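Workshop exercise sheet. Pairs work together: one partner reads the sequence aloud, the other fills in the structure field after running the prediction. Swap roles for the next sheet.
Pair: D.N. / O.F.
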Amino acid sequence: MTEVRRNLITGEQILFAPDRAERPNAFSVGQTFLSGQCPFCPGNESLTPPEIARVGDPWRVRVFPNKYPALDHHEVIVESPAHDATFDSIDAEEVVAMYLARYRAMVSRSGVRAVMLFKNHGRAAGASIAHLHSQIAAMPFVPPRMTREAFGFAKANSCPLCGAISTHHVADLVIDETATMVRLAPHGSTFAHQQWIVPKRHVNDVAALTEVEARDIASLLQRASAGMRKISASHNWMFLGFPEVASAHCYVDVFPRVTNVAGFELGTGTFIDVVDPAATARILSER
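Structure field:
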């Protein structure tokens, strides 16, 4: 059972979810899955909670409640039946379509203030199972990062992401783009080789993305996945939406895990980047 607690000093919400300590970890010594026992593989559907949604029969994408939830509404999206699949090798369009379908279902629930759709891929990124998957969770509060970014958008005279794209201030930081999306290495990156996938039109929430925009996100996520595998075996991505803030601009945050969050970052909340974003743009633009 998850409980929302608060930091004694700041009052920020903390999720207390002791059941998550029971999660299997395929990356830990002594907890590797025996052949054929991955709970995300076809034939092992009985090892997961009952299915919520799927694509195809036999399934190609499958959704079910997280067996060890951090929140009341916390789901797993298995993105391929193939145990060793990579995101750049699958039909990413139908996966991203499922992302948006589940996001819209979550954000429409009564009492939900924010939704986090995210991928932990690889041990260093926090994954406990290697089989390709993402997760989505609904929160009854707006978490600190979203609160800070929403405030930044609200206090700006104009949208900083729209301005950067339209005035070409990020020209040397653009990795690639489509008709509706730009993938760039943000100036002032939090992590080495960080990338943002940003809609060219001003749209504040992931739920409002069109089918064309979803297809373009899928294409850019596949390119990002392929590029990051050349840098690291682990990566994260997360969809940042701001349903309560019209002035905000939604985007997807993507980065390989090549450095650890350590004492300085944890103690100060200030991150140290070790790679110039312009170098990231050059490296990841190479095909």
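Discussion prompt: The chain has one domain: 3-285. What would you look at next?
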